[in-house]
Automatic annotation (TrEMBL):
Residues 1-226 form the Radical SAM core domain. Keywords: Iron, Iron-sulfur, Metal-binding, S-adenosyl-L-methionine. InterPro entries: 4Fe4S-binding_SPASM_dom, Aldolase_TIM, rSAM, rSAM_sf, Sulphatase_maturase_rSAM. It comes from the Bacteria. Pfam families: Radical_SAM, SPASM. Signal peptide: none annotated. GO terms for molecular function: iron-sulfur cluster binding; metal ion binding; oxidoreductase activity. Belongs to the radical SAM superfamily. Anaerobic sulfatase-maturating enzyme family. Its cofactor is [4Fe-4S] cluster. It comes from Cysteiniphilum litorale. This is Radical SAM core domain-containing protein.
Amino acid sequence: MMLQVRLTNWCNVGCDHCMIPLVNRHNKLRLSNEFYQRIGGLVNTHLKLRNEKTLRLSFTGGEPLTLNHDFLVNAYNSIKRTLDNDTFIEHRINTSLIAYRDEHAAYISDYVDLIKTSLDLSTRKINGSVNNYHQLWLKKYHAVKKLGKPMIVNCTLTKSEIGQEAHLIDTLMSYGIENIQISQFFKTGVPEVQQAEIPSNLEQSNMYCHIFDLVLDAYAKGKYINVDICKSYSRIALHLPMIQEEGCQKGYFVIEPDGKVSTCTIQSAVDKGVGRLNSETPNEILFSPDRLKNIRYQQNSFQSGCLSCEFFKNCNRRVCLHMPQNQEECMGYKVFLEHIKHRCTDLKFKSVLLSYLHQSRKSAYSTS
């Protein structure tokens, strides 16, 4: 079970592609103590229904590091106290790192298992400068890295990155970043004027192809960087055994600062959710008509050609309800999958790729 707790939506970093509307990011409302007991009830009920014992508890926002050490520790401990004794917690924090201060070091060292942060080539700026942002971010990144926790850096691709894939990978490697997650740019929360920067499915797929080639060519020369799309899509293209995902709707929950419960991190700030902690029981939330409808949609909605596609069994098409559809490239990025398959007709390259996948399995954390 993945539980994303938005302790606050407040954030002043100002990313162009943020899925949380600006009006929400200006709201300084914080999740109140009254909700922690109810969060525990939701988690306990869901884990029992699923016969599971592991909770991935992620603090996010907004920017969670705008909150002080005591608030973060109290939030973690308050939720933990409400959980069944045999529940195993993997605690994550999603943060830009820009708000990191020395006082956060003890919280991260004592409570956090994984840090997910983000860096892009074009959408984050300080005084109009991407370089200024990068320099401040690097200062925070290296300060946090000294704490010894696994870190994953998320990169969101925009149209500005088309043709800049080599610059992207070179930049990230020069910064000493070890684990990268490549994300899509969604229109949710983004002003219409900036939606023109959203790549089409085909543009996204082609960028994936270039990144894949760059990462694998670097690996063949002895330079390794762990990139999620190179791993997950390779396993699909080669029909290798992989963890069967049921789709995020069955085991993913987002708690908003006002107590709203959603099942989609992309839509959570703008949708009506599937329930509210302050007015509905765990079972009412888990079996709400909206949640059940989302689950059915994710499990049963396909594009034309899906059922006859050779990659259908393990395709990532179910990752999100809100991926762009009705385009020349499908939601599963078949062009990218076919590119991987074609490159593997070269047995020498296939050997390199299999070695890369083996190396990636040894990483402390996956980039998923």
